[in-house]
Amino acid sequence: MFEGLVRQLILGYLGRYIKDIQKEQLKITLWNEEVLLEDVELILEAFDYLQLPFALKQGRVGKLSIKIPWKKLGWDPVIISLEDVLVCASQRDDKEWRMDEVERREFAGKKAKLAAAELAKLSRRVCDSQAGNSFTSYITAKVVYFIG
């Protein structure tokens, strides 16, 4: 049950940045305090809201590891590690700085903020549905806080 909750939170958050996450790619080992995601492709538009002067053309991550110290969550840091990262980017053309393109990227930023709010709402809903289980509520809130 707890692993399913962690899986739902991780997929909800990382799904904004990683394309088509498959269950086989995501490994959760609660006792080792690790969430592992291997061989994933980045969503190219996911970073448009940052208004960077370059555009992603391709992006892959060989290994994404999240160390979550369950027993000391709130005192010890959550550590996110990336290995074998491949990013191909190019300078944005002048036409990409036209008003309609800027507005599109601003809209992408608003969508990202909305997705973060929805994830927080989902975590509250999951916690509310498990009323009385204060440990689960606490862990959920901490994971969302530290990853978000």
TrEMBL record:
Domain Chorein N-terminal: 1-126
InterPro entries, per the entry: VPS13 (IPR026847), VPS13_N (IPR026854)
Keywords: Transport
GO biological process, one term: protein targeting to vacuole
Coiled coil: none
This protein's name: Chorein N-terminal domain-containing protein
Phylogenetic placement of the source organism: Eukaryota, Viridiplantae, Streptophyta, Embryophyta, Tracheophyta
